[in-house]
Each structure stands twice: as C-alpha cells, then as structure tokens.
C-alpha cells in the first residue's frame, strides 16, 4: 500500500500547516474546509489558508513553484474528490459530534484501503468510532501532529485493535520517510502521552502565574529558558495553538480521567482566559492573544 494522494479536512491552524508539509514532501494534497454561507468567492478557503501560511510561515512552501497543494475549498462541493485519496487527515474543530458527522460522509466516499485519521488533541479514539461501522474502525486511527508541524517531529499514533495493521505500518513508514517524523504508538488513554503531560504542565503554569501575580512576560521568562523549553513559554504557546482549543481539551480530559486524578482540581480555565476567548482574542489565529497586537498586555498580571 502506498500513499500517493492525501486530503486534509480543516484548513485552520493545524490542517493548513499539515497540508503545507505534505506538499513540501511532494505529495498532492487536497485542502478542504467549510465555506461560510455569506462568502461570494467559493475558493476563499484555499486562498485564505495559503495567504495565512505565506504570511506566518514564509518557508512553509519551500518548493513553492512545485507546490501541488490542490485547494478547491468547500468540502460539501468536493466530497467526490476523496474517492481516490489514500489518506484523509481530519483537522476540524475539537467536537466529537462534528467530527463524527464528517466521518459518516467519508465512509460513503473513501475507498476501503484509504487511511482516515483524526488530528484530535485529546478525544479518545473509542469515542470517535462509537456508533460508526466496523469497516470505518478498520481504516481509522489518530495521527496527532504537533504545532508547528514542519518543526515538530513527534507524531503520536493511536490505533485500536480493529485498525488494520497494514494501514498502521503504511502511515508509520510514510510519516517516517516522507515527513521525517518520529512516530510513537500510544494507547487510547486521555491526552495520549504528550498532552497528558503537556496540559497538566500548561494549566499548572497558568494557575501558578495567577497566584503569584506575575505578568505574562515574567511568567514566560521563568518557565521558558530555565526549564529548557522553547522561548514561547506558556502564554506564547497559548497564542500559537489558539486559546479556543483549551476549553474542549480541558473538558475532554476531565471527562476521561478518574475523579481522583491529580488533574481534576486544576481543570478549570481561569476567567481571564475565558473572557479573552469570548472577545475573539484567541491568539495568532484570532484578533491577537497575549503577545500580538497589544504589547502592553504582556506587562499586565494574568
Ligand atoms: P482551527 O479552529 O484553527 O481550524 C479548524 C478548521 O476546521 C476551521 O477552519 C473550520 O472552518 C474547519 N471546520 C469546522 N468544521 C468543519 C467541517 N464540518 N468540515 C470541514 N471543516 C470544518 O483548529 P486547529 O487548532 O487547527 O485544530 C484542529 C484539530 O487539530 C483539533 O482536533 C485540535 O484538537 C487538533 N490539534 C490542534 C493543535 C493546535 O496547536 N492548534 C495541535 C494538535 C492538534
């Protein structure tokens, strides 16, 4: 089995960047999303994704001239394109019902050897396949890319006993050779491996910074270099991943972990961050976050 063509569904923070990485690896990629009702230009998804990528990550299209990113836009208009792809990567909103509604459409169009995977941060595989046909479970797995995909080599693979072994090895081989990833096979446990640790760490950092009355800048200076983590620190990382992703992650971890788990007492998102999300301040993808567009915000206490 070989991966000759891929479709990425969801042209947001992750989907667009995953599609760019695949493109740079020379693989034809369809990048699909939902086009807002009011949009007059049906190709708005493609154009917006490419413009954002070129602005945020000028090196994302290293082989711009050879790029084979095929971005027709609205998924509803292009479902039939998925009939000849070998791997569909779902990177849409972190809501199980929305993801499942999409999988039902994919079941109807994808061929039986096509890998269908989710880029979910924390939703259990067992929840994502629940109620879907056995044949879907056989071709489904979680491929959890990290942000930004072109720098982050880790790829978590979560499979179930129903996932066909030859599809798992096809993805592992492709990710290793074509994308330069280090694949780690994970059990279907809450947050898999990296987010089980990472979300705990992130929440502890936010709560500690609030308790100590630190400014955003102070907190990130303390948590970044001295701990040997990238200079984004906690709040720069929130800007990068998107603040709006944190509530669904926290609630999926809260639901999945036992009541006595050490994560439960720290699982509430602070009001300040909830207010920022409500105001559209979701980080780089929104109207700015802690660092962007408002330099004063990083001098304020959290
Ligand atoms: P995002 O909010 O930036 O983008 C989601 C995209 O999906 C939007 O463009 C939206 O229009 C589209 N969409 C929503 N419903 C759709 C549907 N039914 N059909 C087609 N497109 C639809 O989200 P982001 O941050 O890229 O996250 C996507 C997935 O990747 C989530 O499952 C998230 O947990 C996961 N993830 C996110 C990371 C991050 O750093 N942001 C890191 C690793 C995983």
Automatic annotation (TrEMBL):
Which region is the signal sequence?
A: 1-19
What residue stretches are annotated with the 3-hydroxyacyl-CoA dehydrogenase NAD binding domain?
5-189
Q: What is this protein called?
A: 3-hydroxyacyl-CoA dehydrogenase
Tell me where on the tree of life, at the top rank, the source sits.
Answer: Bacteria
Q: Where is the 3-hydroxyacyl-CoA dehydrogenase C-terminal domain?
A: 191-292
């Amino acid at each position: 089995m070989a991966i000759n063509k891929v479709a990425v569904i969801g042209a947001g923070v992750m989907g667009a960047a995953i599609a760019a990485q695949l493109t740079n690896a020379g693989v034809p990629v369809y990048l699909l999303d939902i086009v807002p009702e009011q949009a007059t230009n049906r190709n708005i998804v493609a154009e917006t994704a490419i413009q954002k990528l070129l602005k945020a990550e000028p090196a994302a299209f290293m082989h711009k001239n050879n790029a084979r990113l095929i971005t027709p836009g609205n998924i509803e208009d292009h479902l039939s394109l998925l009939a000849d792809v070998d791997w569909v990567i779902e990177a849409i909103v972190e809501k199980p019902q929305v993801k499942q509604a999409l999988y039902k459409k994919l079941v109807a169009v994808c061929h039986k050897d096509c890998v269908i995977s989710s880029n979910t941060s924390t939703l259990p595989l067992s929840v994502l396949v629940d109620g879907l046909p056995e044949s879907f479970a056989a071709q489904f797995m979680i491929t959890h890319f990290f942000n930004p995909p072109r720098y982050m080599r880790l790829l978590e693979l979560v499979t179930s006993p129903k996932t066909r072994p030859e599809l798992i090895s096809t993805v592992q081989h492709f990710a290793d050779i074509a994308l330069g990833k280090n694949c780690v096979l994970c059990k279907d446990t809450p947050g898999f491996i990296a987010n089980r640790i990472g979300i705990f760490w992130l929440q502890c950092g936010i709560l500690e910074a609030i308790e100590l009355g630190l400014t955003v800048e102070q907190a990130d200076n303390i948590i970044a270099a001295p701990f040997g983590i990238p200079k984004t620190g906690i709040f720069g990382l929130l800007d990068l991943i998107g603040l709006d992703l944190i509530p669904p992650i926290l609630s999926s971890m809260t639901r999945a972990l036992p009541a006595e788990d050490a994560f439960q007492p720290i699982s509430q998102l602070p009001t300040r961050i909830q207010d920022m999300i409500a105001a559209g301040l979701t980080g780089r993808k929104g109207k700015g976050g802690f660092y962007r567009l408002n330099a004063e915000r990083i001098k304020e206490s959290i």
